[in-house]
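Pipeline run #58 for the internal structure catalog. This entry was flagged by the ingest filter as a single-chain record with no existing model, so it goes straight to prediction. Upstream metadata was stripped on purpose; only the residue string is passed forward. Reviewer on rotation: M.T. Logging verbosity set to normal.
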Amino acid sequence: MKPRVSVIIPVYNEGDGVVRHLERILREVLLTAEILIVHDMPEDTTVPYAQELARHDPRVRTVLNTYGPGPANAVRYGIDAARAPVAVVTMADGCDDPRQIDDLARLVDRGVVVASASRYMPGGQQVGGPRFKRMASRWAGRSLWLLARVGTRDATNSFKAYDTDFVREVGIESRTGFEIGIELTAKATRLGRPVAEIPTIWLDRQLGESRFDVGRFLPSYLRWYFFAFGRRLNLDQLTARWAARKPDVVPADRNKEDTPA
């Protein structure tokens, strides 16, 4: 049966720490779904634990990313490999609330192209995390909401659902970190496509260390932040911007997955 939602989870050596989060996702997602565990290398320590879950639940697939290292490339590859009309990106660290995956996917079913889980709207909250990162994210989200009218108060949050046809139309130019969320929100805004949000409570990760590098990723975030303020574009104008950047390689088979050991 074709899934209604593809849950994209980029991973990097999460080890057995990923099991509890994946079990929560499998328990909480009620829509017909596939869970794509996207890893950069066959020896990633996440893979054997994910494949063990896959033996008992066919919704889980481990997918080897061939676009290059890093979370942006993993998300790009995962969306290209997705079989559902809706892709929800969530992290492997357990910070996001898996109960909201269905709600985000249903918003896309209703016609929005980007549905954001928002920490900064009424009912939302961010618990923990580095103070500078919290302040910068809140300021960026608030200013984009008020001044660029992007449709969400949390454009920088990675926990979002996307219309996969929309993503394949406009392309993903990000190659570095977690800026895909703000890139696709900004592109939807410039095209006049609908963006919506629901409140979420984000909890700082309890296991492992964050790989978010502010100094490395900030230039990419700023690029898409300022892009959101531009004039309205049509699809031809937008796609002309990224045609030269479009990756030459696509998954040979979107149904292909790793073979469990």
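catalog note: Residues 5-243 form a domain with the Spore Coat Polysaccharide Biosynthesis Protein SpsA; Chain A fold (CATH 3.90.550.10).
catalog note: The radius of gyration is 17 Å.
status: ready for reviewer M.T.
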